[in-house]
Structures are given as structure tokens and as C-alpha cells.
Amino acid sequence: MTGLVRISAVRRIDINDIGLASICLLGDCVEIVPTAQALAVQRQYSIYNGNEGALSAFPIFRRPIPVPSCTNEVHMQVMNRNPYIAVDEVDILAFSSSAIMQVGSNERIRCVNRLKHIRQLVHRPGEARLT
């Protein structure tokens, strides 16, 4: 990392739940790349066929992720007069799915979360189908 090294000081942090490729980071990092891929199947009846769950069967997991291009040149000068990043208190109920909570500096972050939801309900003759 370039520039002045800073010290992250947190008096108290209370996080109830961190899940699915998420990160709680106190301090500096050059690059963070949390990645989560999940298939969420909700069924009216709990039946598992044994050959399910191949993420590659769904196009959403194969598509390339577009990376935005930066066409503007940015000139920036930062002067940190205090070597501390001081935080008194952090209270978080929950975060998940490639989320980041950081107290510190970072050069690059690339979070990826791909989640496919499927609902399988039994259709009874005579009932209207939802499409």
C-alpha cells in the first residue's frame, strides 16, 4: 500500500452474525475478493433426488461478470494528519453474501455474489398456475 500507514483502533465491536463469504477486517489490506455462489431451493415437500446442486447447470453461474471501466483520470492528494483511525463502537445485527465491514485502508475490493432462488410447488389439477 502507498502512503502513510495508519493504525485502526476500535474500542468495541459487536457483530451478531457474519455469513456466506463475508469479512470483518480491522486493519489495512491491499485487495479483498470475497466470493459466494449458492443455490437456494425451496420445496413444498422435502425431496432430494441426489443429482441436484450443480451450479454449472444454471447460466447465472457461468456468465462473465462485467467489470466497469474507469475512463476518468483521478488525481488525489491525501494528508492524514492523525496516524489513527479511531472508532468508538460498532453494532451490527448481521451481514452476509460477500459483504465487508472494514475499519482501515484498502486499495481494491471486488465482491461477487451469485444466488439462484428456485421454488418448487406441487400443482394440483384445477388450480391456477402462477407464472
From TrEMBL:
InterPro entries the UniProt entry points to: Spore_germ_GerPE
This protein's name: Spore germination protein GerPE
Species of the source: Paenibacillus ginsengarvi
